[in-house]
Design a protein that fits this description.
It is a single chain. Helices cover 75% and strands 0% of the residues. With 111 residues, it is an all-alpha fold. It has two domains: 53 residues; 39 residues. The longest helix is centred in the first third of the chain and has 50 residues.
Amino acid sequence: MEWKVADLLTLALIVITGAYVILTGLILRTMQEESRKATAARVHDLLWRLLMEYRSVEMLLAVDSLWQLHRDHPTDLADEYERIRNRERAAIQALPLLPVSRGDSGARSDS
């Protein structure tokens, strides 16, 4: 059997196409793995930031207060929260304003 130039070119193209398919599969797998790693890194970063933000005493107290409010008012949580918020806002607005001198930083004083 004698090989013709066209047969050799066809065989070469088949080998090149097979190599292309294999390399494309490897590249896609690598890209998917890198994407998974990047997503995991973003999730880790987000969870770390949340942990740092919510582990303060103030945040723990706020979360505990919300859970207590939920236990006390399971069916009208939002309405009760609004009532408390409005009551506290009114109490703050009713506080007397203290005069502030130019040299003062704007902080309230107890004297």
